[in-house]
Structures are given as structure tokens and as C-alpha cells.
Fold:
Amino acid sequence: MADRFALGLDFGGTKVLAAVVNVDTGEVVASAKKRTKATDGPDELVARLVSSSEAAIKAAKLTKKDGVIGIGVGIAGQVDAERGILIGTPNLSQATVDLPIAAKLSDHFGVPTVLRNDVQVAAIGESAFGAGKGAPDFLCIFVGTGIGGALVWDGRLLAGASGAAGEIGHLVIDVGGRYCGCGGRGHLEAYASRTAITKVLQAELHRGRASSLRDIADATDEDGGAAFRSGILAKAVDAGDALTIEAIAEAGYYLGFGIASAINILNPSHIVLGGGVIEAVPLLYDVAIQRARQEALPAAAKVVTFAKAGLGDNAGVVGAAILGALAAG
Structure:
């Protein structure tokens, strides 16, 4: 049987990653990455998806005969999966007006295209080839620009009535608290995402707190956004920077409370955590897991198993490619 290749795209708050994936093995054959901006509008968003896709296909050196059979897209936001439409995303505010992403990519590349939430596709990737493989059920949580979640139950993605099941990032953990990017208040994402950590660090630096971050990076990048990306946070923690360690530990504390609430509601057997901050900064993972076990109901906390995402940064593109291949039949 000939190898089957599909294209997977993972569109997050700071980058779009496109990859040609062997959907029978989970191998990423070739990939391409583009930076995104919070100010991107619909046209810019689609253009980045197309250009990164074309770059990945070119790098994979596929011929028309053995080209990609389908495309899957995971994006950080709310989607209408049935119609392939992006409904809204708090991290790309200009691109949230019922954008028909699946139709635009299908028209451009001439193959079936499906659209899902980014953590949902990551959960599919982890279920097939990563830390969720063989697990009867698991909650998948990714911490990056925001915090996303997805549920796999009885080996299938549990989408919910509107496709938003598992959105742990929007659990209310502090009534009347900080504003979240979605407009709500007191959501977990406003306390434990990389964006939240950055805001805390920027505020403390503005107050004059000493920190090695001043030597590692400016508080804002060329686009006026957060410059404290995961790798910078990791360097500061490794250097023993007290302010960064304090901010990461605080985020882990809140993340642990959110996870504990999810454990109490869902009683999952496994929880898979991934995303740029989880991968780069072990302190966040360690503090969150410790707090979650302490705060969850004892019986539920005792049986749950925690693991880091096995596919790392490729979880989203692998899961998206699997969906693209399924759409092709």
C-alpha cells in the first residue's frame, strides 16, 4: 500500500505551522513556519495559511501523483466544524468574522479541507501517535498564547453541543477577576497562559523589579506584542531569575486549580499537557500537577495519570493531517 500524505496546519496566537504528514505513521515529512500578528485581518490570515502550506509541500518534494490527499486546519478559537468556518478567536481579533477557511483552502489546493479548534486536533494527534495512544479517555490541555483544552472519550473526540467541549482555558477561577482575551473575567487563561505570565512580568519590570529579563529581551517585540516567548522564559528560569520563577510558579498555581476543577467534573483517567510553555518550562508543569493533586477530590486525583504531550510541537499538525486524510476518504 502506497504511503498517504496529508497537510496539517496549526494556527496559533503567534505562528502558523504547516506540515506534510505521513498519516499512516505520524511522521512529519516536511514543515514550514510563519509568524502571525494579533492585528492580522482575514486576508492576511488566509494568505499565511496558503504560503506556509505551499512552502511545506515544496519542502516535501511531492509530485502531483503522490501529493497531499487532504488538508486539516487547527486554529486557536471557536469554529463551526460542519461548515469549516472560523467563528472567533480572542488572539486574532481582526480575523473573527465568520471566515470560511476550509472553503478557501479547498478551492486553492483542490483537495478536501476540514477545520477544528487547535487543541482538538492536537488531541487527535496525541490519541493516534502520542501520549494519549491507548488511553480510554483523556483531557488534553495546551498552554501557549492562550490555554486550550479538548476531550477524547472512548477513543473519540468529544466536541459538545457547539464544538467547545473541554475549553478549560475559560473556566472561571476568580469571580470578577482579570479580563480574558475573550472578554470574560476571571478565566484561567487570564492567569496561567504565556500572555498572562508576560503581562505580570511587564508590570513588575515597569515597577522597577530587578530581573535578568532586561538583559535577555525587551518587554515588547517589533509588533508591540509580548516578547517573553517560551524560550526566553526558560532561559530566565534556568538563570535563577527570581521574578520569572515567581511569575511561572503563580501561573502553575492557578493552572493547577483549573485542572483540579476539571478532574472533579470529568474524572478522567489521563491528562495530557502540552504547548510551548509546558515544553520549555518544566516548573509550570510541576507546580500545576502538584496543586491539581492537592485540590482535586482525593479518589479522582488518585487514579488520574499525567503526561506531557508525546508529539511536542507537532501534535497539532499531525492531528490536523489525520482529519484531512479522513475527509478525503
About this structure: DSSP finds twelve helices and twelve strands in the chain. The chain has a mean pLDDT of 90. The longest helix spans residues 242-266.
